[in-house]
Amino acid sequence: MKTSARFIPKSKGQKIKKPIQFFLVRFVGLFLLLIGLLFIPAGRLDWWEAWLLVLVYAIFIVVYLLIGLRKDPDQIIERSQVGENAKSWDRTILGIYSLLLLVMLVVAGLDAGRFRWAPVSTALEILGWLSLCLAGGLIWWTASVNTFLSRQVRIQVERGHHTVTTGPYRYVRHPMYDGVILFVIGIPLLLGAGWALLPAGLIAVLFVIRTALEDKTLKEELGVYREYADKVRYRLLPGIW
Question: Can you say whether residue 160 is alpha, beta or left, with left for phi > 0 and alpha for psi between -120 and 50 degrees?
Fold first, then answer.
């Protein structure tokens, strides 16, 4: 039975203390990094789209942490650490992802914030915000049903890792990655930075590759995942792949 954050036993509270510190430090660091990567290349502070993005991101992370600590502290603990059996190829993919994300934000700052190289229409900016909202909802839905959600690809043997088949997993096998792809595609659009779609597109391709590799790993190492994959045929896009 899961214990709420309000009545966490002493041993459980001690176990959660470090993840809370990790998320707070990481949140503040990412918050400052996001501001720097957007506004320094832009060379100005009067960029309301970027400030709104920063605000929405901050609210999402804080709400996720607060609700996660109450509803599913084990997931918070898992996402605050790197497991010993994390796949080496996934560390490489995450490193490339981090680099591309930095490039995307810098290019967005230079493009939309300073030089206006490739502005997008208002309709596309609205589409970007809709994509961001859809991404947030999908990520939240996924996190609410999958306590084994992790930052890295690994089999969580110590937690009794098993295949999750509820929520969005009834339709696709990797809904979290759908959320990530929608998120990174939406950012250049809502900021009005056409050139930033290039690194965003590369991130999308990278996560398609990660999906295929993770799917192969799960079929080989995770219980009845192969049977689940036979029932839910599509990895990311229903009816397509």
Answer: left
